[in-house]
Amino acid sequence: MLVLLVAAAGCYLTAGLWRRIAARSGAIAVVRARDVHSTPTPYFGGVAMLMGVGVAFLLALHLPWLSKQPVVTHDALGIFLAALVICVVGAIDDAIDLPVIAKVFGQVLAAGVAVAFGVQMYWVSLPGSIYTLDPIASTIVTVVFIFVCVNAINLVDGLDGLAAGVVGIGASAMFCYTYFLARWENLLTATTASLVTVAITGVCLGFLPHNVHQAKMFMGDSGSMLLGLLLACSTISFTGQLDASVLGSSVTGAGVLPAWLPLILPIAIMFLPLLDLVMAYVRRTISGKWWFQADKQHLHHRLIERGHSQVSAVIVMYLWTAVIAYGVMGVALLRTRLVVALTGLAFMIAAVVTIWPWLRKKLAVHTEGPTPE
Q1: What is the DSSP letter of 68?
Q2: Helix, strand, or coil here: 50?
Q3: What is 264-276 written as a DSSP string?
Q4: Could you give the residue ranges of the DSSP H alpha helices within the chain?
Q5: Coil/strand/helix, residue 29
Q6: Which pTM value belongs to this model?
Q7: Which residue of 93, 212, 221, 275 is surrounded by the most CB atoms within 10 Å?
Q8: What separation in angstroms does the CA of 30 have from each of 27, 97, 138?
Q9: Which pLDDT tens digit goes with each residue over 211-270?
Q10: Of the candidates 359, 361, 355, 364, which has an alpha carbon nearest to the alpha carbon of residue 303?
Q11: How far apart (Å, rounded) are the C-alpha atoms in residues 225 and 231?
Q12: Alpha-carbon dihedral 3, 77, 166, 143, rounded to 10 degrees
């Protein structure tokens, strides 16, 4: 909780400074045809997030308990340096609009920094078997995974408060999983994944007051790429370094499903951003466009087209992220009828909230009758 609050405070208190710097340096999001905001808005929210992550890591590494864990200390340094690289690339892009190839190079470079510090997939652990990756395969898998996560979060950043909320909810679910699973299995609870995910949750909470509708500032590519990299690194540091065969001794209803959870949960946490990424790639490829060419057909755009306001569309995305991430974790770890029933109920509520504008329109037409010609 202390690390979370420090991360939130570090981001919240420095956001105003970086908003003024963005306004004076011309790093401003102008209104384009594909955008939803109506007034030019400063960027550099991602730099404030980096400040929050930095002070949170600095505090954590001076706490008596966490500072005694050499793996956490080493990984935190590598992840922060990778975050610094990708945030700088994103901030430059926010200011002068870098070519796509330059952004891709920056993303790969940041992933390479993480790999150089040992934050990578060493094996893929499945129930009953472990597939060890050789150094080349490990590096390729890690870089590709970080690249995908970075661009998935980048694409979902299209409405005020959307990316920060979705990532914050997903990161909090990942923290609950890594921390409580370690306690249940009598493993060391001081893990890199727990530290990074609680820091992500903190900076997202600290940034949201500046970013909810009407947003005072945007996180920009410096923020969306930063969050994508941090989320990917937390997943890699836990999923790629955890032996799934140790799971199940203390988990309620132990069996095959808990052992699959290290692979399933990261997908559940980033389900909406990954779904949006896949849909965008397929949609643009079919229409003969490059995957990086922007359009106005993302999930949040479709919700607005179907009658949601900006605020309600964001709430729907929050709701689905929470239902999927916490639902998968609860069902897999606890596996009780009550948890399954509550998860099913949450899915139904999310579905009703999603289609409510359409239902309301249909009910109005049915009540009032067809409009006369």
Answers
A1: G
A2: helix
A3: HHHHHHTHHHHHH
A4: 2-25, 45-60, 70-96, 100-116, 135-156, 162-184, 192-211, 220-239, 256-269, 271-286, 299-305, 310-333, 337-368
A5: strand
A6: 0.88
A7: 221
A8: 9, 12, 40
A9: 998 889 999 999 999 999 999 999 888 876 565 555 554 444 444 455 566 678 888 888
A10: 355
A11: 10
A12: -160
